[in-house]
Amino acid sequence: xxxxxxxxxxxxxxxxxxxxxxxxxxxxxxxxxxxxxxxxxxxxxxxxxxxxxxxxxxxxxxxxxxxxxxxxxxxxxxxxxxxxxxxxxxxxxxxxxxxxxxxxxxxxxxxxxxxxxxxxxxxxxxxxxxxxxxxxxxxxxxxxxxxxxxxxxxxxxxxxxxxxxxxxxxxxxxxxxxxxxxxxxxxxxxxxxxxxxxxxxxxxxxxxxxxxxxxx
Length: 216
Ligand SMILES: Nc1ncnc2c1ncn2[C@@H]1O[C@H](COP(=O)(O)OP(=O)(O)OP(=O)(O)O)[C@@H](O)[C@H]1O
Ligand SMILES: [Mg+2]
Prior knowledge:
By secondary structure, this protein is α/β, with parallel strands linked by helices. The protein is about 35% helix and about 30% strand. The protein has a single domain, classed as P-loop containing nucleotide triphosphate hydrolases (Rossmann fold). The chain has helices at about 40-50, 70-75, 95-105, 110-125, 140-150, 170-185, 195-200, and strands spanning about 1-15, 15-25, 30-35, 55-60, 65, 80, 155-160, 190, 205-210, 210-215.
């Protein structure tokens, strides 16, 4: 089943072209590694697909509907892990997951929200850190909180920007296995990465060069 259609997406900042005529489709259940040199446009492409940035031309369709900037229903279908992580340092690890989950799904009871957050933190090996303030966590621990938050609501599309860059050894394997498991439950997963471990588990590689897709 086609989940995502990206059609001739172009983005420029002033005279600097960041994405040019990027087109690809992906199916539900696919894990796609998005590769390319630093500055090639990976984060920008994820922002466009996630509805955080409007392209200058072209379109993105998720599950048959055009992706619109700030569409709440669409936002619930997407799990975003941005390169800057976007965690609130003065909240605990658990609260960073619970607050957006409660906002995203008003039908969940507080008990269900807490249980979902605990389960997501356990998936990234942080069950014993849930009550720690984010500002007290290491870089790799923060990265895992952001990953847990991206998947806690079982989104149809997971977009993860360099999710393993601060992890090593078994933690990297844990994160990659989580992303693979998300695809295996039927989500589309796009991971911007330089990590060969992620590429090894991917169904497909998309390679960006100066904003253009050179392999797909
Ligand atoms: N808001 C912006 N204004 C101007 N230029 C921008 C903006 N956002 C991104 N760019 C430029 O777009 C290009 C692509 O940036 P992007 O962050 O998508 O690269 P990337 O492939 O994710 O790199 P990295 O591997 O370092 O994360 C860069 O040259 C960057 O300077
Ligand atoms: Mg980037």
